[in-house]
Design a protein that fits this description.
The protein has helices at residues 10-21, 25-31, 38-42, 87-98, 156-165, 194-214, 224-238, 274-279, 282-288, 307-317, 362-365, 374-382, 398-401, 441-448, 452-463, 470-473, 521-540, and strands at residues 79-83, 102-106, 118-119, 124-126, 131-133, 144-145, 169-173, 180-182, 192-193, 298-302, 321-322, 326-333, 336-342, 348-353, 355-358, 389-396, 408-412, 418-421, 430-438, 475-481, 507-509. The protein has 541 residues and is α/β, with parallel strands linked by helices.
């Protein structure tokens, strides 16, 4: 098969297409060409479920515990100590107090919310070896969500609390086709506008599949009517021209589209080279990002910063929280628990309760003296967290004023990974741009190990490869490396919760790391419900 840029052997072509089309219906149609299975061509038995194999069976239906499952008044006369005033801990306190339990929440820091944290002018970011001061201007629109920053539409419990607590929400632009995709190794290192990459990828796939249909490769699978309908669908899918050709599409935009004021709308862009698009999985992975259930193109965020949610929770359980209470021992009693903590005055206090819900991150908990069971202790000792890093700047909104980008995310293969444009304050002069969001891995560890000023400098250099203005316009940089933040020591859990989902006598564990939605606030809430369920189950036994 020849694209006009040199021959591609069938196996190479299928492997590349596997990276481009993933497990879509398009790729399954290509498998019918009779050249083995696409899964084999892609080197993975899971690359294309249904292509030469049976898809895995659906998981068994399970019911997640939730408010309404527990008997009213079940907690009357009983006490609970909750370790940590993050979203999981405050959810547990809020719901258990409604059941009659008397709750005490011990929070090691001076603020509630855990990793739900919004940074504004004058705030301090303390890490194990440095302290930064946020120098943004004082302005309600100028804030940096250093932890969670978006909410999926199906995170029903978190959104339910937003309604209950009257936390105003607005749209978060998660996927913007005006944003950029960039690899120094492709297209001469020039960033490509996402819509052009998407349009040309679809056009090339549609052209090749249409050619296969025309050549009779699918005659055994398709009726005459199916063949006609499939060709029509491919024509729409790829915006094909006469004879099912592809020479570019108006969907890709026009020359100079990235520059405000361009008047070249009558000109067509030549299609990007197919071989370059399929040579590196980066291009398709980034196109597929918003196909993930948790990463919809449009999501939600609280108006004024993510910590509006944490503050709303705090307002409802404030009487139960003791701040700057650092836990120093977690012990079991015959019919309860004993927690020793050091208060803000440096005094050690022992607290006994019927139950304990522990939401302290495993990275911190493993160093607190305890008498956990061997299984629980081993799971805590080995639990791993992402080394995520974010770097934010105040800047003139050059991305809006010069490039017509309003919200969304640009991607690069450089260590900085993502560049986020704010989804609020459109049209204003200044905004907070996240110049780097690294999820973890080697890049996250390397960036975490730098001093904050070095992180800012590294990000500025790399972000300038996407936007040359960045080095001039973006300043007042501030960063957070979660693996160095005391009382956190990691961004989100990446290990299998395993035994930590079970009770250790009257100690129950919670936190986003112990949920099916690791890294999400909805996961923190679900984990709190699970821990409550364990406690209530014991009290109703």
């Amino acid at each position: 098969m020849n694209d006009g840029h040199g021959p591609l052997r069938r196996r190479e072509f299928l492997a590349a297409m596997g990276r481009v089309a993933g497990s879509s219906a398009m790729l399954r149609a290509m498998a019918a060409m009779g050249i083995g299975t696409v899964a084999a061509a892609c080197g993975s038995s899971s690359a294309a479920p249904g292509a030469g194999q049976n898809p895995p069976p659906p998981p068994a239906s399970t019911h997640s515990p939730r408010p309404g499952d527990w008997p009213a008044g079940i907690g009357t006369g009983k006490t609970v100590v909750i370790l940590g005033a993050g979203i999981a801990g405050m959810t547990a306190a809020w719901e258990m107090e409604k059941l009659g339990y008397a709750c005490t929440v011990l929070e090691a820091t001076a603020r509630a919310g855990g990793r739900n944290r919004t940074i504004r002018s004058g705030d301090l970011v303390e890490e194990s070896d440095t302290t930064q001061v946020c120098n943004f201007d004082v302005d309600n629109d100028l804030y940096f969500n250093a932890g969670p920053a978006r909410i999926a539409h199906h995170h029903e419990f978190l959104l339910g609390y937003c309604r209950e607590f009257e936390v105003a929400l607005e749209s978060f632009v998660n996927d913007n086709r005006a944003a950029l995709l960039h690899s120094p190794a492709a297209f001469g290192g020039r960033p490509q506008i996402a819509r052009r990459v998407i349009a040309d990828t679809r056009g090339h796939i549609a052209r090749l599949l249409a050619a296969a249909v025309d050549q009779g490769a699918l005659d055994q699978q398709l009726s005459v009517t199916d063949r006609i309908n499939l060709l029509a669908m491919l024509g729409d899918f790829g915006d094909l021209g006469a004879g099912n050709s592809y020479a570019g599409s108006s969907r890709a935009g026009f020359p100079g589209q990235e520059n405000a004021g361009s008047r070249q709308r009558a000109e067509a862009l030549p299609p990007l080279d197919l071989q370059t698009l399929v040579a590196d999985a980066f291009w398709q992975q980034r196109q597929d990002f918003s196909q993930d259930l948790e990463q919809q193109p449009t999501m939600l965020q609280p108006v004024g910063g993510m910590d509006r949610i944490a503050r709303a929770f705090e307002a409802r359980v404030a009487q139960s929280i003791e701040f700057e209470a650092r836990v120093t021992e977690v012990r079991k009693l015959a019919n309860g628990v004993r927690i020793v903590y050091r208060n803000r005055d440096g005094i050690d206090i022992g607290l006994e309760a019927d139950h304990c819900i522990c939401t302290i991150p495993a990275t911190v908990l493993r160093d607190i003296p305890n008498d956990f069971s061997p299984g629980h202790a081993a799971a805590i000792a080995g639990f791993q967290y992402s080394a995520a890093v974010k770097v934010a700047y105040q800047s003139r909104r050059f991305w809006e004023q010069g490039h017509n980008i309003y919200g969304g995310i640009s991607w690069t293969t450089q260590d900085m990974t993502q560049l986020w444009y704010p989804s609020h304050g459109f049209g204003r002069q200044a905004g907070i741009v996240v110049g780097s969001y690294v999820f973890g891995g080697a890049a996250g560890v390397a960036l975490s190990n730098l001093l904050p000023a070095q992180r800012v400098n590294t990000t500025t250099t790399q972000a300038s490869n996407l936007h040359p203005e960045f080095a001039v316009e973006a300043d007042r940089g501030i960063s957070i490396a979660w693996r160095k933040v005391p009382s956190q020591l990691g961004a989100w859990g990446i290990s299998d919760p395993g035994v930590l989902l079970t009770a250790d006598d009257r100690i129950y564990f919670g936190g986003e790391h112990l949920s099916i939605l690791q890294g999400w606030q909805e996961g923190a809430i679900l984990s709190a419900y699970h821990a409550i369920d364990l406690a209530v189950g014991r009290d109703t036994a």
